[in-house]
Amino acid sequence: MSRSVLASAALLALAALAQAQTPPAPAATAASGPATAAPARPPVDPTAPKPFAEIIKGAKEQPGLFPIWRKDEKVWIEIPKEAFNKPFLFSVNVANSVGERGLYASQMIGEEIAEWRRIGNHVQLIALNTKFRADKGGTQLALEQAFSPSLITSGPAASAEHPDRKSVLVDASGLFLGDIPGYSTRLEMAYRLPFAPDRANSHIEATRADAQISTLTSRVHFATPRIPAPPLTPAPVAVPTPPQATPDPRSMFFSFVYNLRALPEQPAAIRHADPRLGHFMESYSNLGDDLKANPRVHMVTRWRLEKKDPAAALSEPVQPIVYWMDKNIPAKYREAVKAGILEWNKAFEKIGFKDAIQARQQPDDADWDNMDATHASIRWFTGSDVGFAIGPSHKDPRTGEILDADIGMSDVFGRGSRRFATDDVPAGSHAHDHAGWTGPRGGQVLADQFCTYMADQASEFGFALDLLALRDGMDLDGPEAEALAQAVMKDVVMHEVGHTLGLKHNFRSSTTVTQAQLKDKAYTEANGISNSVMDYNAYNLPLKGEPKASLTNTTLGAYDYWAIEYAYKQIPAEQEAAELARIAARSTEPQLAYGDDFDQGVGGLFDGFDPRSNQRDLGDDPLAYAKKRLKLSQELWDRVQARKPQAGEEPFRARRSVAEAFRQLGMAAHNVSKYVGGMQAERVVPGVTPVAAFKPVDSAQQREALRFISAGLLSSNSFRFSPEFIAAQPLDYNEWAERGQPLSIPDAVAALQGRVLDRLMSAATARRLIEQGSLLPEAQRKGAVSLSEVYGTLQGAIFSELKTGAEVDRMRRSLQREYLRRLQAQLNRSTNGATVYADAFSLARWHATQLARDLRSASIKPGLSVETRAHYAESLDLLDSMLKATLTRS
Question: What is the pTM of this model?
Answer without folding.
Answer: 0.89
